[in-house]
Amino acid sequence: MKKAINAPERVVVDMLSGMAKAHSRLIKLLPGTQVIVRNDAPVSGKVAVISGGGSGHEPAHAGFVGKGMLDAALAGSVFAAPPLEDALAALKYCGNENGVLFVVKNYTGDRLLFDMASEEAQRMDIPVRSVVVADDVAIEDVARRRGVAGTVLVHKVAGAMADLGRSLDEVYEVAHKATLLLRTMGIALGPCTLPGSQSPSFVLDKEEIEIGIGIHGEAGIQRERILPARKLVERVLEKILPDLPFTSGDEVAVLVNGMGGTPLMELYVVFNDLEDILSSQGIKIYKAYIGEYMTSLDMSGFSITLLKLDEQLKTLLDHPCQTPAWTQM
Amino acid sequence: MRCTRKEIVAILSNMVQVVEENEQYLNQLDSVIGDAEHGSNLKRALRKALDLVTDLPCENPADILENFGRILATSGCGSGPLLYGLAIKAFGSCLGEKGSFEPQNVVEAMEAMLHTVKEKGGANIGDKTMVDALEPAVNAFKEAVLSGHTLVEAFDFAVQAAEKGMLETRNFVGKKGRSAYLGERGVGYQDPGATSTYLMLRSVYQTLLEKGCGNSES
Q1: Is there a contact between B27 and A109 if contact means CB atoms under 8 Å apart?
Q2: How far does chain B reach from its first CA to its final CA, in angstroms?
Q3: What is the pLDDT of residues A249-290, one digit of tens each?
Q4: Cα–Cα distance between A172 and B2 in angstroms, integer?
Q5: Mean pLDDT for the stretch of residues B190-203
Q6: If you count Cβ atoms within 10 Å of the first and of the last residue's Cβ in chain B, which end, N or C, has fewer?
């Protein structure tokens, strides 16, 4: 499989080094780690918001480090939770008496990592709370739902709240509220291939798609035939809308997230139908984000995220931020 | 009954080698139900832990195991290295308290290892995880020791039980880890975590057999 890399085992370090060089006014790489922190870190007088996970989801997570969003992002190897020593390095570097909020995606490895890091934080006398994102409605059992693309909206609101100088409990509460109002579902049109791997993560026939995928190249919950974009959007919304439920009169932020190998053209086609269906149901789009936020390497496909908004969440989405992948003026 | 630094390092380095040899096999098992990285991440973390631990001026086998586990748990990526690291650390620290490799002490260390994996990972038998190989292995080991078998013989029983448990994961619907998201579609595929557990236990047994470690009254 052709990849523009030097060596599979160097992919993550080379990428992080490139990101840090490209965006040196916003972020920097903590030496000896795979941790990206704000260029002006450690920032005193505020809660530090730390997230992270496996690599292969770019721009997540390092792309969302900067004023108004994350203070630090941990990067594991491709699709695997970051090492504990990096979590501790980030804690030591960014943590202070104001405390740390971990934004954790609901995957076994990530949960385990941040649980262990929280235990260590207590020993280090750094107040820490964790908010777990589990926005993937493809999984029926709520406790087992994965944290997927909607996580970046949690980064945004938690980061804004922290930037306003609010307390750890207040930052946690707003992040937690967002997780309760957040729903996502994804569809793959094609698999991804890990660097160094000779074969893709799964094989689809020309006409087949995977419904209800996660963000690690794992197959979805079921396999179906490809449909027009309109039908795909309906297929996703029939799971998302009743789940919260989102109803007429609601205001939402929507995220149409590309999985890494889908043209922006198709994402806008998807959004066009999404907007049409939502407005026909009286659901008002307050903000729309279209693009690659939480990818799965070169997987083709997309996910749709809806976040139900109240006045506080609207204000926080509108709060300025400046990161490599997300700038809000 | 003693085990020297040299023997412990041989056990660990053979274990690392087995995972290295099976990297692609484990990745391929993982690609079906997970994300195709189990072998590579485990290999990388085990190799790093082995390199660092052999550099430590540490003679006590239990300390070597505890350090190996600690490094594996803190420097590896993903839940595999983290859980194996915590498990081996618990094993070493239990043996350190006991002070020797008497079979009964090894039973307690094995139980400490299993307890750690189940507590931290939250998985139980039948969830299609490494616990499906580890728990039967620990039980078989304990039973063998209680009925008077030597350490090496008990490991033989443990490996057989781990293999059986590993093969049984093919029948299970995943409940923990990434195989859980596939649900019924994962049935028929063997769990990569249970497989790496089996491979590592088998390697420990083979090294014990070759070296005669733990059998000699030295």
Answers
A1: no
A2: 6
A3: 999 999 999 999 999 999 999 999 999 999 999 999 999 999
A4: 52
A5: 96
A6: C
Helix (H) or strand (E) holding A6: none
Asked if A84's CB is within 8 angstroms of B177's CB, the reply is no
Q: Which residues, 6+ apart, have CB-to-CB distance to A219 below 8 Å?
A: A201, A202, A210, A213, B182, B185
**AA letter at B94:** C
Fold for the domain defined by A8-180: Rossmann fold (3.40.50)
Q: Token match 């070296």: residue?
A: B211
CB contact at 8 A, A137 and A240: yes
**Where are chain B's structural domains?**
5-211
Name the DSSP class of A83. P
For residues B88 and B28, what is the distance between their CA atoms, to the nearest angstrom? 25
Provide residues of A within 8 Å CB-CB of chain B. Answer: 8-9, 54, 76-85, 88, 107-109, 112-113, 115-116, 138-139, 144, 146, 194, 196-197, 199, 201-202, 214, 216-219, 221-222
B161: which 2 tokens?
């039980």
Contacts with A117 from chain B: Cβ below 8 Å: none
By the 10 Å C-beta count (0-12 exposed, 13-18 middle, 19+ buried), A235 is classed as middle
- Domains in chain A: boundaries: 8-180, 182-317
B136 SS3 class: helix
CATH class of the B5-211 domain in this structure:
mainly alpha
Q: Name the E strands within chain A.
A: 27-29, 35-38, 48-55, 72-78, 100-105, 128-133, 182-190, 208-211, 222-225, 251-258, 284-291, 300-308, 321-322, 327-328
Report yes or no: A235 and A227 within 8 Å, Cβ to Cβ.
yes
State the Cα–Cα distance between residues B14 and B20, nearest whole angstrom.
10
- Nearby residues of B208 by Cβ (< 8 Å), 6 or more positions away: B11, B151, B152, B155, B214, B215
For residue A221, list chain B residues with Cβ-Cβ distance below 8 A: 181-183, 185
Q: What is the pLDDT of residues A225-234, one digit of tens each?
A: 999 999 999 9
Beta bridge mates, A284: A251
Report how far residue A220's alpha carbon sits from residue A206's, in angstroms, rounded to the nearest whole number: 17
What does CATH list as the number for A182-317?
Answer: 3.30.1180.20
- pTM of structure: 0.92
| Chain A residue with Cα closest to B73 | A84
Query: Beta strand A48-55 with A72-78: parallel, antiparallel or unpaired?
Result: parallel
Indicate the pLDDT class of residue B4, thresholds 50, 70 and 90: confident
Q: Cβ contacts (< 8 Å) between A109 and chain B: which residues?
A: 78-79, 82
Examine the pLDDT at B102 and tell me if it is beyond 70: yes
Reported residue count of chain A is 329
